[in-house]
Amino acid sequence: MLLLGLVLPLALACVPNTADLQALLTTGGKGYVLSLCPDTVYSVSKSLNFTAPEQEISTEGYPTDGSRATLRVVGGTCAVRASGDGLDGVRLRYVQVDGNRVGNASASGTSQGNIEVGGNNRGQLVEWVRSFNPRGWTCLHVTEGTLKCTETAIQHNDIGPCGHDTWQDWADGISLSCANSTVYNNTVVDATDGGIVIFGAPYSIVHENRIRAQTRVMLGGINLVDVLPWKPGNYSGTRVLSNRIEGGYATSMGNDTRGPNEQRALIKIGIGIGPRVWWDETYQNTSRGGEVANNVLSGAFTFGVAVGGAQNFQITNNTFVGNETFIGQYGPNCTQSDKTPNPPVALLREPDSLTSVNIAKRNTYDWVDGRVQGLTCFVPPAASEWAWPYGGGGVNADPTTSVSPTPTAGVDKKGAAANNAPAAWLLAVAGLVIVVI
Ligand SMILES: *[C@@H]1O[C@H](CO)[C@@H](O)[C@H](O)[C@H]1NC(C)=O
Ligand SMILES: *[C@@H]1O[C@H](CO)[C@@H](O)[C@H](O)[C@H]1NC(C)=O
Ligand SMILES: *[C@@H]1O[C@H](CO)[C@@H](O)[C@H](O)[C@H]1NC(C)=O
Ligand SMILES: *[C@@H]1O[C@H](CO)[C@@H](O)[C@H](O)[C@H]1NC(C)=O
Ligand SMILES: *[C@@H]1O[C@H](CO)[C@@H](O)[C@H](O)[C@H]1NC(C)=O
Ligand SMILES: *[C@@H]1O[C@H](CO)[C@@H](O)[C@H](O)[C@H]1NC(C)=O
Ligand SMILES: *[C@@H]1O[C@H](CO)[C@@H](O)[C@H](O)[C@H]1NC(C)=O
Ligand SMILES: *[C@@H]1O[C@H](CO)[C@@H](O)[C@H](O)[C@H]1NC(C)=O
Ligand SMILES: *[C@@H]1O[C@H](CO)[C@@H](O)[C@H](O)[C@H]1NC(C)=O
Ligand SMILES: CC(=O)N[C@H]1CO[C@H](CO)[C@@H](O)[C@@H]1O
């Protein structure tokens, strides 16, 4: 055992960006560690595939900042794939994955995320990874395989931006479809579809993540709206607990309480539960069986929490902190049929589509009973409108609770993405709990 301890560090000498990374993984076999060099960019023209159980791809020395090695997509859409068979326990850690989508606004429709993990495997790990600018539909996809995926851990990652907020150029932050999984302590900034999208993923827990719309419009913060692939809308045992979700804040001064936002950044639906929230009511399916509790929302939303087409959900103790507004106008796609959704409110539910949904008592905001139907059709106010609240460490935010936020989108001269302290802005609104749902 002592000998092994002495030999291992030699085996971990980092590989230069001229090496054939795929060949190293393939010949390395079970447990092989592909150790990338710090401050180095590796061009990926075909997805780099894990090939055996317990393999690891990481940066030498496990840095957590901008010196993490960067895997940059230069062909196809996916940088790293661990969704094939026979890949239990593989690990992607301490690297950056640059989808290199900048300037390519219309890469949507492709089926691959920046990172594809999951599949028919158990116990995979993705941690301390920065994933941004995917060419495909998500920054990180945890697939279900043939519904045999189990126990993936997704933690301490720094995700975004993902996609653009123009029509169907959207991309998710984290797309979770693996059962019994944990999504913990991730930061998602400027995903443009859903920040964290949960596709059923029964018995998974999504907790203590931070999601923020900083410079882009996000359709959803956390989504529990998909009924596939875990039929029928199976969210049994899925728990969404203690996450922080922040819509946009004013970027310059308006009046005493509200100001403009130069990017119109907001989250249309803070937390969406049930398919009607996303699609129209002719889609008669339900999400069933989950729990959504102790989440904290702040900033600009069109709807804070919206529930439509849900059964056996526990929705308790979700709170608003700091300042918040519920803003947006009907867009052209809200009025395509004779029915239109309810206008913006903090809490919206469609009672006749709910069965056994325990929605706990609240104080300042009441649940509004109204039509929940394709709420992404709303459009944000004009950038110049005094509609955004102050907060999040920005202009006119509470100085005693604020820490200046650092954008996560920066890319430094070497091309490696700049790292920063994403947790800082979360502290900005701590302490001012004003609403209990
Ligand atoms: C990884 O697997 C995919 C799917 O089988 C394949 O298209 C791709 O070429 C593989 N990557 C490499 C580097 O061989
Ligand atoms: C955008 O896409 C085109 C065509 O696929 C490609 O040639 C170009 O390199 C891409 N640009 C960037 C910045 O990724
Ligand atoms: C998830 O965990 C439960 C309880 O440990 C187990 O019964 C179930 O088979 C697991 N699900 C999958 C898809 O492995
Ligand atoms: C959560 O992730 C951040 C990086 O985004 C890290 O700085 C922090 O230490 C992590 N917290 C815990 C409890 O691991
Ligand atoms: C939901 O999925 C879990 C895990 O596969 C399974 O045990 C359970 O029976 C499913 N529930 C329904 C209602 O199908
Ligand atoms: C309600 O949620 C807040 C914020 O996550 C948490 O601090 C508090 O402990 C929760 N209360 C209960 C009774 O769980
Ligand atoms: C409305 O939908 C059409 C496609 O049906 C799309 O092209 C257009 O951008 C949408 N408008 C808005 C404001 O989302
Ligand atoms: C600030 O401007 C907004 C938008 O015009 C308005 O709704 C709000 O009442 C104003 N607040 C104050 C304090 O004047
Ligand atoms: C909330 O807005 C007020 C101005 O209306 C501002 O003074 C205060 O600092 C804001 N709160 C936070 C937590 O930023
Ligand atoms: C996945 C699923 O169950 N989809 C159904 C949703 O509801 C519509 C309308 O009833 C059906 O056509 C779909 O099959």
TrEMBL record:
Q: Which SUPFAM superfamilies match?
A: Pectin lyase-like (SSF51126)
User: Which InterPro entries does this UniProt record tie to the protein?
Assistant: PbH1, Pectin_lyas_fold, Pectin_lyase_fold/virulence
Name of the protein in question? Right handed beta helix domain-containing protein
Protein's organism: Cutaneotrichosporon cavernicola
